[in-house]
Automatic annotation (TrEMBL):
<dbReference type="InterPro" id="IPR007627">
    <property type="entry name" value="RNA_pol_sigma70_r2"/>
</dbReference>
<keyword id="KW-0238">DNA-binding</keyword>
<keyword id="KW-0804">Transcription</keyword>
<keyword id="KW-0805">Transcription regulation</keyword>
<keyword id="KW-0731">Sigma factor</keyword>
<dbReference type="InterPro" id="IPR039425">
    <property type="entry name" value="RNA_pol_sigma-70-like"/>
</dbReference>
<dbReference type="Pfam" id="PF04542">
    <property type="entry name" value="Sigma70_r2"/>
</dbReference>
<feature type="domain" description="RNA polymerase sigma-70 region 2">
    <location>
        <begin position="23"/>
        <end position="90"/>
    </location>
</feature>
<dbReference type="InterPro" id="IPR014284">
    <property type="entry name" value="RNA_pol_sigma-70_dom"/>
</dbReference>
<dbReference type="InterPro" id="IPR013324">
    <property type="entry name" value="RNA_pol_sigma_r3/r4-like"/>
</dbReference>
<comment type="similarity">
    <text>Belongs to the sigma-70 factor family. ECF subfamily.</text>
</comment>
<dbReference type="InterPro" id="IPR013325">
    <property type="entry name" value="RNA_pol_sigma_r2"/>
</dbReference>
<protein>
    <submittedName>
        <fullName>Sigma-70 family RNA polymerase sigma factor</fullName>
    </submittedName>
</protein>
Length: 187
């Protein structure tokens, strides 16, 4: 059994030994990421726990196909959850009311949906041409056009702008033509 299957089976069966191993091997990286991005250790613990619960909840309803490593998959889920938390706290006004249990359920459902959308997007990004993938990956990392032109040996920034537009259009078309798009969009 490979490592991915080992961890997934462990989560499905709620095997404490496997879950402890997941914590020991992956949590330190998540903690480091959260601490480096305006968080505290309790935040890292919460994010990690939510990500584990999210994966366990998804495994109850469907199989998860992990194209990389389980470590990378869980770490990405944690990063997405932490970024979501940071965005939420920017827009929150503090009130003196208790948090309702339904809020946690809705939050978990929302984070699962966001993870599915992210995976869907990544799947489509993998299907476009190598050149488009290189350009869009740099574009999504907010690398300036000038640097992209230099790295990918284009004549100037305008050529890169045109390529980004064409590649984004292709990616958008691929996403919208998939039946899953409407399901993920409307949930």
């Amino acid at each position: 059994m490979n490592k991915n299957d080992y961890f997934i089976t462990g989560l499905q069966t709620k095997n404490e030994k496997v879950i402890l191993e997941i914590y020991k091997t992956i949590y330190p990286n998540v903690k480091r990421f959260v601490l480096q991005n305006s968080g505290q250790e309790p935040d890292a613990e919460d994010v990690f726990q939510k990500a584990i619960l999210q994966i366990m909840a998804r495994l109850q309803v469907q199989n998860i196909e992990i194209k990389s490593t389980f470590d990378g998959y869980l770490f990405t889920a944690c990063k997405n959850l932490w970024r979501r938390e940071l965005n939420k706290t920017k827009n929150v006004v503090t009130i003196d009311q208790p948090i309702e249990p339904d809020d946690d359920i809705n939050d978990l459902a929302q984070s699962i949906l966001e993870q599915e959308r992210w995976e869907f997007f990544q799947e489509k990004l993998e299907l476009i041409s190598g050149n488009c993938k290189q350009i869009l990956q740099r574009f999504f990392k907010k690398i300036p056009y000038k640097i992209i032109a230099k790295e990918l040996d284009y004549n100037d920034e305008n050529v890169v702008r045109q390529r980004v537009f064409k590649c984004k259009s292709k990616l958008t078309e691929m996403i919208k033509s998939d039946n899953r798009f409407n399901q993920l969009k409307t949930l």
